Amino acid sequence: MKRVAIHSKDVAESKLFFVKQIFTELENYGVEIIISKDFDRLLHAINFRPNIVGTFSAPHHLIGVDLMLSVGGDGTFLEAATIVQHQNVPILGINTGRLGFLATTSKEQIHSALESLMAGHYTLDERILLELESDRDLFKGVNIALNEFAIMKRDSSSMIVVHTYIDGEYLNSYWADGLIVATPTGSTGYSLSVGGPVVVPQSNNFIIAPVSPHNLNVRPLIVPTESVIAFEIEGRSKNFLVSLDSRSRKVDSTIQLAVRRCNYTCKMIRLDGDSFLKTLREKLNWGMDIRNYLNRY
């Protein structure tokens, strides 16, 4: 391994020790380090000058990079995925945030994680991405999402109506606060909070999940990723929000929107001993029923 990229957007004092540990250990392995421009500005602000060979802010800056470390929470990981895009650089999430469904390596595991990376003791999980098609350039060409696409009402305005079509055929008009289309990776994110199912990452499915639907018989729907899902929006308000993961833009009802599966994937690094099911048990406290322990012993 010759070159490693690092992205982070938080160098709070409580996390600085772990950030410095990453740089020190990578330097000890003789690895060249490049960091994101945003991360570089943060480090300059606190007068920390690590030994780096350059910075990056776009996919073509990552040519020749072996892997990327995302240091933060799941939001940082999602941001890293939008930087990597089609370069397919594998990403390992080191969790200095909170829950961590994507950034699954704890800060206390940094030493063992880097040791495993250098020894090649890991697997690459390929995660599907959503791609947004629109008649306007809402996101400056970065039209992908690892977790979800969402259409939402703004602020405290009245509910909206999202007319939804699958491969050109009318599905439903959702009277709701919004509508989410989630990937399997995003099934443990926003979709889960509105009653959507947990979907294993290897599934080739999208989840269409309404947010606070007015019709109580409306439920989340799972559709194949070969589907093209299109939308028309209407409501009393003239403006709505469209989001890709944590990025959002204001739109009006004249916009044309559709989502489909992206033609490339996001490669997530899974260290030996880790798994999606293990993450579910740890993050959602599955299996914590006292009866499991009584039966075991």
From TrEMBL:
It holds the Pfam family NAD_kinase_C. It comes from the Bacteria. The keyword Nucleotide-binding applies. NAD(+) binds at D74, G75, N147, E148, D177, T188, G189, Y190, S191, L192, S193. One of its GO terms (cellular component) is cytoplasm. GO terms for molecular function: ATP binding; metal ion binding; NAD binding; NAD+ kinase activity. It is found in: Cytoplasm. SUPFAM superfamilies: NAD kinase/diacylglycerol kinase-like. Its main location: cytoplasm. One of its GO terms (biological process) is NADP+ biosynthetic process. Its cofactor is a divalent metal cation. InterPro entries: ATP-NAD_kinase_N, ATP-NAD_kinase_PpnK-typ_C, NAD/diacylglycerol_kinase_sf, NADK. It catalyses: NAD(+) + ATP = ADP + NADP(+) + H(+). HAMAP family: NAD_kinase. Belongs to the NAD kinase family. Involved in the regulation of the intracellular balance of NAD and NADP, and is a key enzyme in the biosynthesis of NADP. Catalyzes specifically the phosphorylation on 2'-hydroxyl of the adenosine moiety of NAD to yield NADP. This is NAD kinase. It comes from Bernardetia litoralis (strain ATCC 23117 / DSM 6794 / NBRC 15988 / NCIMB 1366 / Fx l1 / Sio-4). The lineage of its organism: Bacteria, Pseudomonadati, Bacteroidota, Cytophagia, Cytophagales.
